[in-house]
Design goal:
The chain is mainly α and about 180 residues long. Helix content is about 70%, strand content about 5%.
């Protein structure tokens, strides 16, 4: 390689999205959008990660914010994890829907694998910490106070955090396989 040569980028030849755009009557419109990605397994996983992260964030803000001092740092850790992962997953999903080339380039890079592995770890650790704090600090108050709706919401938040953590773990594994094979 000569001096000043850049890095080599491997791109797979296999199409992941099929024909782009939306079928309208007898033609295709908006061919820059690859809706077909959403029908693939990686697409469904990415949508699941994004939707669940947004739902967890919504539960934490709408129900747990008033009791964040009572729940403690577990609330802050869960909110930080869900916010960061929601934003990153949403941006990746938008890029993958708009550009098949972006999907092939990012999926075959280390970023997707490392992000998903880190997200898996953060979700699993924040889920266990939120579960502990929910049981210890607000569990007894839920039994004696009628209408204390934060306990079921925080329970749903840590269960969903575990689920999305498993999704990110599976996505990290498939990203690793994709990275190693180059397809």
């Amino acid at each position: 390689m000569g001096k000043g040569a850049g890095p080599i980028i491997r791109m797979s030849n296999a199409s992941t999205h099929g024909a782009g755009g939306v079928e309208c009557c007898f033609c295709r419109c908006c061919t820059c959008i690859h809706i077909e990605f959403l029908k693939t397994m990686p697409g469904m996983v990415k949508v699941g990660e994004t939707v669940l992260s947004g739902l967890i964030q919504s539960l934490l803000i709408n129900y747990g914010l008033r009791y964040s001092a009572m729940i403690g740092s577990a609330f802050e850790g869960s909110l930080t994890t869900s916010s960061a992962c929601f934003l990153t997953s949403a941006v990746l999903l938008a890029c993958y829907i708009v550009s098949e080339k972006s999907y092939r380039l990012v999926k075959s890079s280390l970023f997707e694998m490392m992000f998903n592995a880190l997200a898996c770890f953060l979700y699993m650790s924040s889920a266990s910490y939120l579960a502990f704090s929910t049981k210890v600090f607000i569990g007894a108050q839920y039994l004696v106070t009628p209408g204390f709706d934060v306990y079921p919401a925080m329970t749903a938040a840590y269960i969903l955090s575990g689920v999305v953590g498993i999704l990110h773990g599976a996505d990290a594994y498939y990203s690793y396989v994709h990275y190693k094979t180059g397809r």
